[in-house]
């Protein structure tokens, strides 16, 4: 028994000493281990997209504020309600012509874009909510300067111009793929004189830019997920929004699951008219079916999608 | 022969010399001290007694920390803050890779519970389904006899909110290790590269998103005197 204790104790001492000494010596030989043959390759990924069936609605507002003007105190020249259905991985963009003549809560009936001037983004949201019956979750607002900087901060993007376009005072675009800078994107977004239905077509083209940006973001995220930080910081530096950074991160992840080809880009149907000396747009009754569709699941049913205002150019 | 046996039996009946008892007491005392002291050899001693195996020491080499900001106001402070966040993220990623590829108590059992605790709940579910890429794998025990860490590198990008608080971080990793096959005749270079997006969800930094490639390669067989080199870089 005693001998066993002694042997055990000696082993313990040797082990402890060996461990202490061993800790200070290199554990392995420095043999060459240059790769000889690839024997296995695999990939793992996960992006935490929202998966709820409740749609998310965001009002994207483009103010006509020029540099040095207060963005939220001007008129909204670009208005798009974006509905995202995370569960279906789909989205819809509904554009409103800036001259749409609608009730503005507390201000009678006026052009839809004056709501921003009267009461900032909150009143603009209230106006669209009253018009459509859709509860809007978030808003995001930018002006000319912010829009240009935002696009330039992400390094521009590749955009497919669907038809040749020219507009006196802005610039011409040929049909096909272009690398858009912020200035290019703004010129394309403002172009309406070369379009058969003027502001209706322009609103659709602005939606096209959003889809183009979605495509670019998905491509970049697939190559390098950390690009999401570049996009978020570029966006938040040049936007005003009520979306928190955490929510925006979550939405950014969610958009990676949306196929741009499955985004409906629609402009509310209507006709042009005159109120006094001012030209206005009267939204047609068919728009109600679009609002109803979107309120349900954020999307627009095929049966309720009106013809493209640029249809004659797309043929 | 008989006489020798008789003498042996005689010695056994005698009291052991006092110096032996003294040595035993000293050794046991030293062992007990080291056992409860907590570090180094004590930890290894505890592991042996508990039936655990020693875990190779490992840490990523943090190459760069950069800040992404949503305003222009905090620029100088944020670069310094990004380094602090990067250190925390580095620690988590060290733990993740140690538990996923290096700790024999995990890979010999095919049990990577420690790894999934470093992921958010949603990400953990998906990660477990892709465990063969994110860990040494369920069948590693039959395949390997030891795994040695190699030079591994990490860069961290930190996104700060408008108040200058860290909102999220991306860890871009390049991990290497050498796994010696059972029997020691061959070795595999384990290479894991990719990105982990982390957020502080109230209980420290956790992985919320990942995009990771695993590309194992045949490595040089171990030398007769030891294992293969982890210096596969």
Describe the structure.
- Chain A is 39% helix and 24% strand.
- Chain A has helices at 2-23, 114-132, 144-153, 182-190, 199-223, 227-238, 245-255, 287-297, 311-314; strands at residues 37-46, 56-63, 76-85, 90-96, 101-103, 109-111, 138-142, 157-161, 176-180, 240-241, 263-267, 270-275, 278-283.
- Chain A has a single domain (56-314), classed as LCP protein (Aminopeptidase).
- In chain A, α3 (144-153) crosses α4, α3 runs antiparallel to α6 (227-238) and α4 (182-190) packs antiparallel against α5 (199-223).
- In chain A, the strands form four sheets. In chain A, strands 10-7-2-3-4-11 form a six-stranded mixed beta sheet, sandwiched between helices. Chain A has a two-stranded antiparallel ribbon with strand order 5-6.
- Chain A has nine helices and 13 strands.
- By secondary structure, chain A is α+β, with helices and mostly antiparallel strands.
- Chain B has 233 residues and is α+β, with helices and mostly antiparallel strands.
- Chain B has two domains: 2-49, no CATH class; 61-219, Nuclear Transport Factor 2, Chain: A.
- In chain B, β4 (166-181) and β5 (187-200) form a beta hairpin.
- In chain B, α2 (18-37) packs across α3.
- The longest helix of chain B is centred in the middle third of the chain and has 28 residues, at 75-102.
- Chain B is globular, with a radius of gyration of 25 Å.
- Chain B starts with a helix and ends in a 14-residue tail after the last strand.
- Mean pLDDT of chain B is 83; it is low at 1-13.
- The interface between A and B is large, with 48 and 70 residues.
């Amino acid at each position: 028994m005693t001998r066993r204790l002694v042997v055990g104790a000696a082993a313990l001492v040797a082990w402890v000493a060996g461990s202490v000494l061993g800790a200070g010596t290199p554990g392995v030989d420095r043999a060459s281990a240059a790769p000889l043959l690839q024997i296995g390759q695999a990939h793992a990924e996960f992006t935490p997209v929202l998966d709820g069936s409740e749609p998310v609605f965001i009002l994207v507002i483009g103010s006509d504020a020029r540099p040095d003007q207060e963005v939220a105190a001007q008129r909204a020249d670009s208005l798009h309600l974006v509905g995202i259905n995370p569960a279906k991985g789909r989205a819809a963009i509904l554009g409103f012509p800036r001259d749409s003549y609608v009730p503005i809560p507390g201000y009678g009936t006026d052009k839809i874009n004056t709501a921003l001037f009267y009461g900032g983004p909150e009143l603009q949201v209230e106006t669209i909510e009253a018009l459509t019956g859709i509860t809007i979750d978030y808003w995001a607002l930018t002006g000319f300067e912010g829009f240009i900087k935002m696009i330039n901060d992400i390094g521009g993007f590749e955009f497919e111009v669907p038809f040749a376009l020219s507009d006196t005072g802005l610039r011409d675009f040929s049909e096909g793929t272009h690398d858009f800078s912020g200035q290019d994107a703004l010129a394309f977004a403002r172009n309406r004189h070369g379009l058969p239905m003027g502001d209706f077509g322009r609103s659709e083209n602005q939606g096209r830019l959003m889809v183009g940006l979605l495509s670019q973001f998905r491509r970049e995220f697939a190559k390098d997920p950390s690009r999401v930080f570049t996009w978020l910081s570029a966006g938040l530096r040049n936007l005003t929004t009520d979306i928190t950074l955490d929510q925006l991160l979550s939405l950014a992840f969610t958009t990676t699951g949306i196929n741009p080809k499955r985004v409906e880009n629609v402009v509310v149907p209507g006709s042009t008219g005159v109120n006094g000396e001012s030209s206005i747009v009267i939204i047609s009754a068919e728009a109600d079916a679009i609002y109803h569709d979107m309120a349900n699941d954020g999307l627009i049913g095929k049966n309720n999608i009106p013809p493209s205002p640029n249809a004659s150019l797309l043929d | 022969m008989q006489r020798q046996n008789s003498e042996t039996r005689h010695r056994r009946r005698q009291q052991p010399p006092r110096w032996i008892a003294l040595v035993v007491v000293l050794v046991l005392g030293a062992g007990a001290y080291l056992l409860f002291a907590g570090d180094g050899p004590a930890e290894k001693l505890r592991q042996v007694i508990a039936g655990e195996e020693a875990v190779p020491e490992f840490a990523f080499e943090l190459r760069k920390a950069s800040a992404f900001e949503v305003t222009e106001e905090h620029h100088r402070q944020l670069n310094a803050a990004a380094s602090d966040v990067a250190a925390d993220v580095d620690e988590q990623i060290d733990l993740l890779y140690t538990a996923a590829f290096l700790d024999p108590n995990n890979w010999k059992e095919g049990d990577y519970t420690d790894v999934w605790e470093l992921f958010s709940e949603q990400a953990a579910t998906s990660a477990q389904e892709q465990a063969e890429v994110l860990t040494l794998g369920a069948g590693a025990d039959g395949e390997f006899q030891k795994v040695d860490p190699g030079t591994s590198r990490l860069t961290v990008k930190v996104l700060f909110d408008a108040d200058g608080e860290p909102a999220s971080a991306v860890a871009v990793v390049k991990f290497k290790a050498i796994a010696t096959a059972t029997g020691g005749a061959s070795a595999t270079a384990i290479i894991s590269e990719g990105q982990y997006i982390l957020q502080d969800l109230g209980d420290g930094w956790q992985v919320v998103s990942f995009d990771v490639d695993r590309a194992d390669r045949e490595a040089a067989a171990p030398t007769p005197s030891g294992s293969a080199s982890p210096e596969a870089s």
